[in-house]
Design brief:
The complex is a heterodimer of chains A (about 160) and B (about 500). Chain A is built from seven helices and five strands, in the order H-H-H-H-E-H-H-E-E-E-E-H. Chain A has helices at about 10-25, 30-40, 50-55, 60-70, 90-95, 95-105, 150-155; strands at about 80-85, 115, 120-125, 135-140, 140-145. Chain A has a five-stranded mixed beta sheet with strand order 2-3-1-4-5, covered by helices on one side. Chain B folds into four domains: about 1-85, Glutaredoxin, CATH 3.40.30.10; about 105-310, NADH-ubiquinone oxidoreductase 51kDa subunit (Rossmann fold, 3-Layer(aba) Sandwich); about 315-405, Ubiquitin-like (UB roll) (Roll); about 410-495, Up-down Bundle (de novo design (two linked rop proteins)). Helix content of chain B is about 40%, strand content about 15%. Chain B has helices at about 10-15, 15-25, 65-70, 80-85, 105-110, 115-135, 145-155, 175-180, 185-200, 210-225, 255-265, 295-305, 305-310, 345-350, 385-390, 410-425, 430-445, 450-465, 470-475, 475-485, 495; strands spanning about 1-5, 30, 45-50, 50-55, 75, 160-165, 200-205, 230-235, 240-245, 290, 315, 320, 320-330, 335-340, 360-365, 375, 400-405. Chain B has a five-stranded mixed beta sheet with strand order 2-1-3-4-5. In chain B, strands 8-9-7-6-10 form a five-stranded mixed beta sheet, with helices on both faces. In chain B, helix 6 (about 115-135) crosses helix 12 (about 295-305), helix 8 packs across helix 9 (about 185-200) and helix 16 runs antiparallel to helix 20. The chains are: A alpha+beta (about 160), B alpha/beta (about 500). Bound molecules: flavin mononucleotide, iron/sulfur cluster (SF4) and FE2/S2 (inorganic) cluster (FES).
Chain lengths: ~160, ~500
């Protein structure tokens, strides 16, 4: 599950409209719409803002407020691979801090950065529910327990 | 012969899919069950034959042919493994036993009998039964579930809602995830019973986005429940109920019930001031029950076995059982369901076998990122609400994170502040700004400025009293528990330099 390929603007708009229409029946449809838009394009393109705000009868400022509140929503595409490493307590108890530092150092990144070739984005996550097989990570949606820098880097180059 | 290979996220994260494929490649049908909760043994394969299920631990694809040929040694009958045998499994009775998405397997193991009884009892009888059971909210606050339901039942409103809080953001916890992946119908049945009690016809399960497997299983379970009249026209009765699965977007604070409701409505997940209580003005301003996954998943067994049976377990006002999650640096990590009252040290040392590294245990954090650290001196504290409160701690969602003697406790106190700063919803200054100051102050102490210690204490007091919710209000717990129990770690960096 790597990132979706870029889509041209006109085709994108039609797809955005279709996603909005599919969720409008819900009470509180905004998050389901945003999740689907991000699943389709890998981020929330700015040309999605106007149609979403119009369909939900909210201001663009309100929409922006929501987008900026949640860690999940991106305003630009991530790297080809997205690596999330757990920074929370149970993983720290199992050497998670040293493990993530080793991964970041190897990739030459800090948290929330993408390699210059656009291959890998590394993000922190606070608990994946794998606390009894820590440290934990997620590579392109795939979970890893008892993760080491080696197993993570191997998964990225697979 | 039946073969079970868990589909639980932890089992998958340790390679269960490849193991299942290896069985399939040899022409065997595999049931993807939930986890039995013995995470250190995952992937835990079970072979059912002649009425018993034998376990094989930490299985790799290379073991598969040997297991089938009988040349790999078994751990014995699953239920006889001491970690399992010492539990009282009520909420998790079916988890790992059944095929999670097989409704008839669910019914064959006691499922739906609670709901049938609830339909007979009617709304008032249902509320009474929950009150009698003594069930308190398992999401953290420990509020009596029956009283919450009664409030919503009495509230007037054209539409009421049941919201299942599956945001499970606390580090060290995974009980919600496990039950959703291993026995999703118990959550659905609990929500349907809640609907009968309060007169709600619509429910939401709000699952954090970090739980893709739980989202998949719950979504499938809801579809199956609709097809089989568990949802819709409930068991062909006059009660209607439907459920929508919603996905969070990576905000810890959205586990707080009013923040969660804002998020469901499509807003920023900021915390609402109370009153009004969500019970009276919740989702879309209408009467709403918000309950944790485990609170709801425990409802069916209360009705199946009776409130008195459930209330017969536990200690004092902490009635029934708690699925305790033991994690971090621990030899036998996993989920251990037991009646309230077991001393913390027994859990950590006897049940879980101490630290995974074999080194001495230095501290455990109980109750997630807002919970206090307990040094071994406090290990005689019984695992129960009031008893933990009396020790300046909280059981929260019952996560226990173990640290060995290599842990840097000052770094853990700093992390508590940092986490609060990252996840603050921003509504109150003591939380939003205080947490950032907290990180800076701990850094000053680390740099040798002992004079900053009283500042940290003051800051904790301000956050405790000036915050609207427990994120800002309880972050001082882990910080102060480190400061009081491990003062030497705040003596500056001289020690480390020596
Ligand atoms: C910052 C914060 C985070 C919370 N996170 C959760 C959570 O992830 N899951 C949960 O059930 N309750 C969480 N709670 C508690 C809820 O606000 C609420 O008390 C609970 O969902 C009520 O259900 P219960 O009575 O069944 O426990 C959190 C509270 C706070 C202050
Ligand atoms: S304490 Fe923090 S998270 Fe809670 S309402 Fe205030 S600012 Fe928001
Ligand atoms: S703390 Fe890292 S997975 Fe839970």
């Amino acid at each position: 599950m790597t990132n979706p390929a870029p889509v041209a603007a006109p085709a994108r708009l039609a797809e955005i409209e279709a996603i909005i229409a599919a969720h409008l029946w819900r009470e509180g449809p905004l998050l389901p719409i945003l999740h689907d838009v991000q699943a389709a394009f890998g981020f929330i393109p700015s040309d999605a803002h106007a149609p979403i705000a119009a369909a939900l009868n909210i201001s663009r400022a309100e929409l922006h407020g929501v987008l900026s509140f949640y860690h999940d929503f991106r305003d630009a595409p991530a790297g080809k691979h997205v690596l999330k490493i757990c920074r929370a307590e149970a993983c720290q108890a199992m050497g998670g801090a040293a493990m993530s530092q080793a991964v970041l150092d190897t990739l030459g990144l800090d948290w929330n950065q993408t390699t210059r070739d656009g291959r890998v984005t590394v993000e922190p996550v606070y608990c994946l529910g794998l606390c009894a097989c820590a440290p934990a990570a997620m590579v392109d949606g795939k979970l890893k327990g008892r993760a080491t820098a080696q197993t993570i880097l191997a998964e990225l180059s697979a | 012969m039946k073969i079970y290979v868990p589909r639980d996220a932890a089992a998958r994260a340790l390679g269960a899919d490849a193991v299942a494929q290896a069985f399939a490649a040899l022409g065997h049908e595999v049931i993807r069950n939930g986890s039995r909760g013995m995470v250190w043994l995952e992937p835990l394969v079970e072979i059912a034959q002649g009425g018993v299920r034998r376990a094989y631990g930490a299985v790799t694809p290379a073991d598969v042919a040997g297991i089938l040929a009988g040349t790999v040694e078994s751990l014995g009958v699953v239920e006889d493994i001491p970690f399992f045998a010492r539990q009282t499994r009520l909420t998790f009775a079916r988890c790992g036993v059944i095929d999670p998405l097989d409704l008839s397997d669910y019914a064959a193991h006691g499922g739906l009998s609670g709901l049938r009884r609830a339909l007979d009892l009617g709304p008032e009888g249902v509320v009474d039964e929950v009150k009698q059971s003594g069930l308190r909210g398992r999401g953290g606050a420990g509020f009596p579930t029956g009283i919450k339901w009664e409030t919503v039942a009495r509230a007037a409103g054209p539409q009421k809602y049941i919201v299942c809080n599956a945001d499970e953001g606390d580090s060290g916890t995974f009980a919600d995830r496990m039950i959703m992946e291993g026995d999703p119908f118990s959550v659905i049945e609990g929500m349907v019973i809640a609907g009968i009690a309060v007169g709600a016809t619509k429910g939401f399960v709000y699952i954090r986005s970090e739980y893709p497997d739980a989202i998949d299983v719950m979504t499938s379970a809801v579809k199956i429940a609709r097809k089989n009249n568990l949802l819709g026209c409930v068991l062909h009765s006059s009660h209607e109920f439907d459920i929508e699965v919603r996905v969070g977007a990576g905000a810890y604070v959205c586990g707080e019930e009013t923040s969660l409701l804002n998020s469901l409505e499509g807003k920023r997940g900021v915390v609402r001031a109370k009153p009004p209580l969500p019970a009276l003005e919740g989702f879309m301003g209408r009467p709403t029950v918000v309950n944790n996954v485990i609170s709801l998943a425990t409802i069916p067994v209360i009705f199946e076995k009776g409130a008195a049976h459930y209330a017969g377990f536990g200690l004092g006002r902490s009635k029934g059982t708690m699925p305790i999650q033991i994690a971090g640096n621990v030899a036998r990590g996993g989920l251990f369901e037991t009646g309230f009252g077991m001393p913390l040290g027994e859990l950590v040392n006897d049940i879980a076998g101490g630290a995974a590294t074999g080194r001495p245990v230095k501290a455990v954090q109980v109750g997630g990122p807002l919970g206090a650290y307990f040094a071994p001196e406090k290990f005689d504290t019984p695992f129960a609400y009031e008893e933990f409160d009396g020790q300046g701690g909280l059981i929260g969602h019952a996560g226990v994170v173990v640290f060995d003697d290599s842990a840097d406790m000052r770094a853990m106190a700093r992390f508590a502040m940092e986490f609060c700063a990252v996840e603050s919803c921003g509504k109150c200054t003591p939380c939003r700004i205080g947490a950032v100051r907290g990180v800076e102050t701990i850094d000053r102490i680390a740099a040798g400025d002992a004079g900053a210690i009283p500042l940290l204490v003051d800051l904790c007091e301000t956050m405790k009293h000036g915050s609207l919710c427990a994120l800002g209000g309880f972050t001082p717990y882990p910080v102060m528990s480190v400061l009081t129990q491990f003062p030497e770690e705040f003596a500056g960096h001289r020690e480390a330099a020596e």
